[in-house]
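User: Sequence in, structure out. Go.
Assistant: Echoing your sequence, followed by the C-alpha cells.
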Amino acid sequence: MEKLLELAKNHTDWAEIFHIKRDYRAVNFKSGQVYNIEGEEEEGITLRVRKDGKTGFTSSTNVSDRETIFKRAMDIVSVSEKTPFQIPCYKNNDYREVQTFDEKLSHVNEEDLMKTGHEMMGVIKECKPSITVTAEVGRAKSNIRLLNTSGIDKDFKRTFYTVSLCGTMVRDEEQLEIESTFSSVSFVDSQKDLAFKLVEDCTNSERTALIKSGTLPVIFSARGFKTLYPPLYMAFCGDRVGKKISPLVDKLGEKIAPPFLNIVDDNTVPFGPLSGPMDDEGVPSRRNELIKEGILKGFYYDLAGAGKYNTESTGNGIKRASLYEGFKLTTPPNPWPGNFMIMPSEKSKGDLMKGIKKALIVEDVLGAGQGNNMSGEFSVNVVLGFLWEDGEIKGRVKDIMIAGNVFEVFKNLLWVAKDSRWEHSFFGIYNVPTMCFGDVNIAAKI
C-alpha cells in the first residue's frame, strides 16, 4: 500500500488509500437442522486521488496491481468535474480510543455458532413445534486501515455478531412469516431470549383482532421503527439540507419534537456496530447531536459535503452503496448515518403501556412502503401488528396500513421507553427504544 501511495503522490495533488480484510463465518439452519456453513475471506483496496480540483476513485480486490489501480483512478479524474474538496490531516493522538473489537468473538468458530443455533431451535421446537424455522448465526472480523498523503496512517479492528430467526406459521390458510433479529459487536453466548420473542409473537398471532380506519395511538417496537427511519435519517443529511430538499431546511435551533426526545449519531459509543476511531475518510469519529430536548441541533456531513457547504465533516463519510445496502468496497464515501440512536428514558415499557387504553402495536412492516422519504411521508402495510386494549394484547390485526408525515408524527410523540436495542434492518442499523405516538392514521379494510 505504501508503494501505491507513493506512486499516486508523485502524480497527484493528494491521494488516499482505504484497505480492508474481512473474515466471515455463518451457520444456516432450516427446519431446525444445519443445512449450510459459510466461510469467506475478503480483501480489498480503494484509491482516491485529487488532481487540478478533480477527484478520481477506484477499487480492487487485487491489492498488488498498483499500476492498474492508479491508472483507473486517473481515468476517472479525466472525466470528473471540479468540486471543493479538502483531504483531512490528523495525527494519531487526534483519534479517540473506541471499543470496536471483542477478542472472544474473534475466536468464535462454526461449532460455537451451531451451538447457539441449536439452542434457539430447541426453544422453538418445545414451545411451538408446528412452526417452520430458518435461522442464521454469523460473526465477522475486519481489519481496516486508511492512509493518505497528508500523513494519516490509522488502522483498527472491528468485530460483528448477528443472529436472525424467521418462523413461518400457517393459520386459516394464511402463511405468516415472523422475524426476530439480534446484532452486536460483542459475543452473547445465549440467544434464548430471541427465540422466546419469536414464540411470543407467534402466540399473539394465533388470535385475530379488529381495528377500524381512523386515528389511534401507535406503539413502535425497534423492529417496527424501520417505517420511520428512512425519511428521518435522510432529513438529517447535510447534503440534502444544502440542496434545500430536506424538510428540516431553515429549522436549525427550532423545537420540532417534545422535550424528552434526544437523537444522536455517535460512532464513539463502545461496541456500536459502526463505531471506530474514524470514518471511512479518516475523519475522527465523534458524537453528533441531531435533536436535543426536542430542538434541532445539527446535521451530518462527509468531506465532500463539508467542502460544498462551507462547514466541517462530522465523521459521517461512510462507504455504503444505497438505502438498502450496507458496506460496499466499490462505493466512495458518502454522507450516511453511523450509530443512529434515539436515547431511551428511565421508564419501563410495561409501566408506560399501562397508561394507554387502546393502541396499535407495530412489530413489523412490509417492505419500504409507498411514501416519499424526501418529504418525510410514509405509507406502509403492517405485516405484524397487534391490538393493545385494556392492558393486554387482544390479537393480531390484518389488512391495515399506517400513514403520515414523520415530523408531524414526532410532534405527537407520547413517550419513549428504556428498552433500547440495536436493530439491523434492510434500511441500516439503528438503536431505538419502544416509542408511542398519538393519533396516527390507520386504514383498514373493514
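User: And one key feature?
Assistant: The mean pLDDT is 91.
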